[in-house]
Amino acid sequence: MSSNDIHVAVAVIKNQSNDLLISLRSPDVHQGGLWEFPGGKVEAGESALDALKREISEELDIEILHAQPFKTIRHVYSDKTVVLDVWLVDKFSGEPRGAEGQAIKWQSVDKLNQNDFPAANRAIINSLVLPERYMITGDFSDLAEFKVSLEGALKEGISLVQLRCKDLPDSEYLQLCKEANSLCERYKARLLLNTSIDVFQKTDVKGLHLNGQRLHAATKRPVDNSCLLSVSCHTLSDIERAEKIDADMVLLSPVNETASHPGVLGMGWDKFSQMCSKTSVPVFALGGMRENDLNNARTAGARGIAAISCFWNDIE
Fold first, then answer.
1. CATH fold of the domain at 6-128
2. With contact defined as beta carbons under 8 Å apart, do 135 and 307 qualify?
3. Fold match, 6-128 / 133-307
4. Per DSSP, what are the bridge partners of residue 306?
5. CA-to-CA distance for 125 and 259, rounded, in angstroms?
6. When you count CB atoms within 10 A of the terminal residue's CB, does the N or C end of the chain come out lower?
7. Around Cβ 18, how many Cβ atoms within 10 Å?
8. From 3.30.1120.10, 3.40.50.1110, 3.40.50.300, 3.20.20.70, which CATH number describes the 133-307 domain?
9. How, if at all, do strands 20-24 and 35-36 pair?
10. C-alpha span between 251 and 211 (Å, rounded)
11. Cis amide linkage into residue 38, ω under 30° from 0
């Protein structure tokens, strides 16, 4: 973080209904009149968590009992650069009130409107609307097995699915899209297609995934904002490209060694965390992931994990 950056601790506060607490900025301050996630500046010599507890006590008259790191966001405005140290607060004591005279309200995640928030807060919303588990489809022998495996994962709570079938002819892939989309709609899951733009445009699916080659071939966002766009990244250059085309999420890999590439060492959590800190785009850790890696991913600044083997229900 540059010495000129303004370091801010931000709280995403959840109640028992999983609604989020937001507050209205005073009209006479920077980005005034917009809603925001509460928080404030980190003072010299103060940790981000200590600053968060102090600011939330002052602003909302509550005491934070439990908070965990959620994401770090660096955003450049025309007149300043802010670094948001975002924490998820799921336990607190007291009843929140606008202790500084500001309006506050509880809002469900699906009702958050990005246009009502400062630009730096919009990356928080992007992360909040995404689940922590991103499944990539694995092997199957026929359509019946595919449907059983996919539905099994959806029944277990998977709600973000990438349909990846590299060697399948377009006609068969399109048929598979219809089956996958029907199942995902039934379970209220989001489907993304790992395919060419031409094939994608022949479907009514509202999600696209770009591999590295397609990412660097894109000069602008290839889908409109009603669709989800995820991209594969391995380097900071890839991440910069993802930001340029306004991707909604990044799959950053490989974190660990994978069965498909034995002997190829992953970047490890330290390097992964460093790369996550360079972008405000939600990042999923990919490569050798297991369910128990979710906490590591969160701590490293990721939204969650992406995987095939630990989510895909192979039929034996």
1. Nucleoside Triphosphate Pyrophosphohydrolase (3.90.79)
2. yes
3. no
4. 134, 286
5. 34
6. C
7. 10
8. 3.20.20.70
9. antiparallel
10. 10
11. no
- On whether the CB atoms of residues 229 and 208 are closer than 8 A, the answer is yes
Kindly provide the residue ranges of all beta strands, DSSP E only, lying in 211-310, ordered along the sequence. Answer: 228-233, 249-252, 283-286, 304-307
pLDDT band at 316 (very low <50, low <70, confident <90, very high): very low
Give the position of tokens 């670094």. Answer: 83
| 63-76 β-sheet, strand order | 39-41, 6-13, 81-93, 63-76
In this prediction, residue 262 has a pLDDT band, given cuts at 50, 70 and 90, of: low
Cα distances (angstroms) measured from residue 274 to each of 154, 189, 214: 32, 31, 25
Phi, psi of 136, rounded to the nearest 5 degrees: -105, 130
Tokens of 240: 């910069």
pTM of the model: 0.77
CA distance 111 to 190: 18
In 138-223, DSSP assigns E strands to 160-163, 190-194, 207-210
pLDDT tens by residue, 273-295: 999 888 888 999 999 999 999 99
The side-by-side arrangement of strands in the sheet containing 20-24 is 35-36, 20-24, 104-107
The residue ranges of every structural domain in the chain are: 6-128, 133-307
Report the Cα 141 to chain-centroid distance in Å.
32
More confident residue, 131 or 316: 131
76 strand-pairing partners: 81
* Neighbouring-strand partners of residue 304: 284
Distances (CA, A) of 239 to 247, 277, 295, 302: 9, 11, 22, 14
Confidence of residue 315 (pLDDT cuts 50, 70, 90): very low
